[in-house]
Structures are given as structure tokens and as C-alpha cells.
């Protein structure tokens, strides 16, 4: 689902990663501000990063939400398909539930 | 405020060494259960993969819900199994057929989890089958992929139970004599859809129709449901030319970005890139209103609104029909307070003035 479909603003001024730069550094930040840095290939599926993060923090990967630019990351996404840049941030959110009145 | 401490740095770029089964399978080497190299994991996955003939016995995701509910699956066993999971693996070749798996109960989930943890080492130890100690004095040997079969069947049973619960809820609600006509119409429509809706059909890239099963009932909604609704609302706004540049529906990520910024007290563009993108979009199109969902106290969903033209922010609750009905409550939670704080800080900045926010600190109920 595109950013527009999720109601998010588009990124017109994105700077594409340099050609030939096959790896990038990504910062994963939890809601409490804890940071884990990952070095990952542009073509590697981000599920690998998600699994590694979940393993490192000792949580079930299905109980964690990974967001890039506010949009949920899917298992098949890669840094390249998301146009990620070096030192970009992925936000982590725990699963939320709730009711209404 | 001091920057957060870096807790770890992980390099995921290293290529896994090539996997030669002869070097590992039957070697009694220690199986790397944590940080398993991708090549080893792929090889184990291939061992555990259901043969095509057996995989075809698992219903496809597009099977309509009503048809899915007619299927019979093996029962789930609640028996307590005290045997060592490692003793459930054997170097003997499999001796049983799929009929055996179809007729016997599925081992308890906790034990399946234990078997899943143990299967890698068993494979490295040369095991080729699973010993079902529950039957035939443990003489039967089922294929290693039976573990995959049991887990798949367990999921089918659970998912079928969820859909049955949803259908039963629809039936109960429709049987209520004082049901409003519009509610009856909506419930009738939902019931009719079960004849054509796949029980687990993909909806976009993130969700499936199974997420919808939990909507038919009184269970709490998850962030998946809320973001599905926001995606739908957003698509409906996008289809209305009169609204598309005036109103924006943000997903849960927006409230999370506000909360994160408030927690870290960083309101600059570098640390709040998502909010900076929203700011840019809002200014570029002259957006009038922004709606977004917020989870409060980890147990409640409310709607938030920022009216940029009138310089107002507000929150509201939805009633059971999805209508904003309740004014902002006096007991504001921390999340709403953080939104207020962030907006106030934003408004105090020069850039915020360009958003046409008012000078007064005003909050509007809606």
C-alpha cells in the first residue's frame, strides 16, 4: 500500500542512494528511545532486520510493529524498494489494542 | 537531554557460508538455534516442507468463509505431554501415511513449540522421523514434515473457531428484536459477504480478510484494525476531489511520531522526520484538517483532530456506530497531553505560524 493510500504525505525531494552503494546503516528506535543500529544490504528483505531486532530484544516479532515514515513495513520490503537512505530510522511500536465506550 | 544510549550494533551484510548438508546433517554438531545462518535455515525449511500432495489438503486462503466453516480438521489435544521433546525424534525412516495424521489429534501448542525448538538439533543428529509416543506404544514413525502439518492444522482449527465465533455473533445480533433497521441492514450485508469473502484472502500487502473476523464481535480492536480503517477512510477521501486537499487521514504512525517526539523532547526536523513531512505536506496543499487515531492507556481508541484553519485541536470518542459522540473528557491521558504539548510548541515556532494556527491556546471538542 502506497503512502498516498495510507494518507501520508509524499516525499518529493527524496535523495536516492548512491549507485553502487550496496549497504546502508539503519537505526531502529523503540518507543522508549532505545536505539539499535543495523548495517544491511539494499536488497535484503527487511524481515531479516525485523527478526534480528525481535531476537535481540527478546520479543515475538509478530508483537512488534516496524514503521518507516509512519507506514508499516511488510515482510517483502527491502531498503531499496522503500527508497531508504543511509542512516534512516525505523520506528518500533508494540502491538496496541483497545475498545471504545 | 542526553541522547539515548546505543544498545547494540548489528551487521546483517555478511554472506552466509555455503551450506553442505554432509558437513552438518548426521554430524551431531550443535545446531545454531540463535542467529541461524540463512542457508542452514533454508535447508531445514526444505526438510520440513509439506509434500505437494499433502499441502493441497490445506484449504486455500480464498475459500469463502461459509465453505471454510464446513471443513473438518483433526482435533486439538489438550493432553499434558511430559516426555522430553528430543525423545520424539528418531533416526528411523518414516513408517506412517498421511491418514494417520488426519485421524489423530494435533499435539498441544506448547509441545509443538518445544518440538520446533528441538527439530534443528534432531536434524543435525541425523533424525529422519518423529516418534508419536501417544499411539501404538511409540512404534509409529511419522515424517519430520508432520511438525509443519500439525502447526498448519492447529492454525486452521483456531482460525475456523474465530470465524465461527464471528458468524455466531452475527446470528445472535440479528436475532435481537430491538435491532435498529440500519444495524440490521449492516449485519445482513456482513452475513451475506461470508458466502463470497475468502477466509484469509490478502488485503493489500499488510492484512488479510482474517483480520476482519475479529471485527464481528465485542472483542477489542487491534492496531491492525485501526490502520485498516484509516487506509479505507484515506482512500475514500482521496476519491473525493472536494476533500482531497483539505482533509488528511493519518495512520497510527502519526500519533506514534507525536508521542516519540514528546518523549524525547525533540521537535526538530532531523529527529522528527515524519512530522516534518506532514508539516511540509500541510503547508504545500494548505490542508484544513488532519484526523488521526490515538491509543490511550493501552486500552482505548479515540480520534484526534487538528483544524489548521481555525487553530484548534480536539479529541473525540466513537460510539458503537462509529459516530463521534463524546466530548473530550476532563481526565486527559498522557498521550493527549503530549499531542497538546507538541502542537503548542509547534505553534510557538515561526514555521508553525505558516500553518495558520491561531495565537490563542484553544481546544475544541468535536
TrEMBL record, chain A:
It comes from Mycena pura. It comes from the Eukaryota. Residues 1-12 have a biased composition (Polar residues). This is Small ubiquitin-related modifier. CDD domains: Ubl_Smt3_like (cd16116). InterPro entries: Rad60/SUMO-like_dom, Ubiquitin-like_dom, Ubiquitin-like_domsf. Residues 22-99 form the Ubiquitin-like domain. Residues 1-22 are annotated as: Disordered. Coiled coil: none annotated. Pfam families: Rad60-SLD.
Automatic annotation (TrEMBL), chain B:
GO terms for biological process: proteolysis. Keywords: Hydrolase, Protease. GO terms for molecular function: cysteine-type peptidase activity; ubiquitin-like protein peptidase activity. Pfam families: Peptidase_C48. It comes from the Eukaryota. Residues 220-314 form the Ubiquitin-like protease family profile domain. InterPro entries: Papain-like_cys_pep_sf (IPR038765), Peptidase_C48_C (IPR003653). Belongs to the peptidase C48 family. This is Ubiquitin-like protease family profile domain-containing protein.
